[in-house]
Amino acid sequence: MLKKTFLAVLVLLTVAFVAMPAWKPVAKRFKWFVVATNVYQDTLRRTGIRHDQISQPDYAALPESAVPAYLQRINTTFADYQRYGGLTPERLQGRRVLEIGPGETLGVTIRFLGAGASQVTADDKFVPLLRSTFHQRLYRSLLEGMPPAERANAADALQLDNGVDVNERRISYIYGEGIEDAGKSRSLGQFDVIVSNAVLEEIYDVDRMFDTLDHLLRPGGRQVHVIDLGDYGMFTKHGFHPLEFLTVPDGIYRYMVESTGQPNRRPLAYYRDKLASLGYRTQIFRTWVLGHPTHLAEYRTQLQRGRDYTDDDLRMVQSFRPNLLPRYERLPDEELLTRSILLVADKPSEESLRLARQLLAR
Asked: Whose CA is closest to 284, among 270, 272, 298?
């Protein structure tokens, strides 16, 4: 009862501040105003008044001048899947891929088809299949820039003469339902590869998500996930410490993020331990250091002091550590310094599972 009353007060305070713009520049300097603002936004989506993600732009209105930047993002993401995730054409040939949260474009989906995948299922909770003139131009440019053999592999996936239409034998698009729910009706081991880029941190019940992905992935299959461990700017855009979001009590934080697709605050260790509990063999690359403006030029399985981060970076974390919730305060410096990761997880093969069952039966 006390928690509900507190949340109601937070929402009412937010409405009051929003109604009086003169308050906003001052109010944003206070942690609990930022908390209340996010509770308010989450409440709008929890109650069905809004269905979009926070700060989701109008993708259909993107100008043609944005095409090169989008092409670079698509190709960089796919290159990381290949280089660090081992998703080479040899591994993808004839395979079925699940892409979770493709977002505003099917660019990575097209690259998978070009590399030899037979079919890609794309599932996005917040963004419908976009068919704008911008997307038509983007996909044409992407296909034109692909090697001839890859372009031939993906040529039948899209119809671009009149907007954007997909060949459902090659691309299956699911909108409005998270894969943790949509996957319930799908058959066991339906996919050979599962990927996501900055999506898993947006899922509040990520335990259920991983259980579903394990159900959907065939034995011997691979998952590759890029996971952002930062705060999505909730606090940092207002000048707060980049770890400030790890100070908010769990009972309140849930009502800030659960329905808005903002960070679930699961640390690196969670992803490592969860996949291990499901029997997966994992490798985790650190891709970004907290407080740095860009990703690491070379992704690392371990961060090294003096090479990947400085003494100033270390002091930034250590000086703030006493403010953190106890479970975050106990994390190693290197994990608190890790802003994002690329997780590669291999599911045991049928033979490995058979041997494990035999051992358990003894």
From this structure: 272
pTM of the model as a whole: 0.90
pLDDT band for 360, please (50, 70, 90 cuts): low
4: left (phi over 0), alpha (psi -120 to 50) or beta: alpha
pLDDT score for 187 = 83
CATH no. of 59-196+218-227: 3.40.50
Among 196, 179, 160, which residue's Cα sits nearest to residue 80? 196
Per residue in 61-100, pLDDT (tens digit) is 899 999 999 999 999 999 999 999 999 999 999 999 999 9
d(CA 190, CA 204): 24
Q: Using 50, 70 and 90 to split pLDDT, how confident is the model at 173?
A: very high
Distance CA 249, CA 331 (A): 17
Measured distance CA(112)–CA(194) in Å, rounded: 11
Q: What distance in Å separates the CA atoms of residue 84 and residue 78, rounded to the nearest whole number?
A: 10
Collapsing DSSP to helix, strand or coil, 288 comes out as strand
Asked if residue 167 lies in contact with residue 156, where contact means CB atoms within 8 angstroms, the answer is yes
Q: Which two tokens stand for residue 44?
A: 């709008």
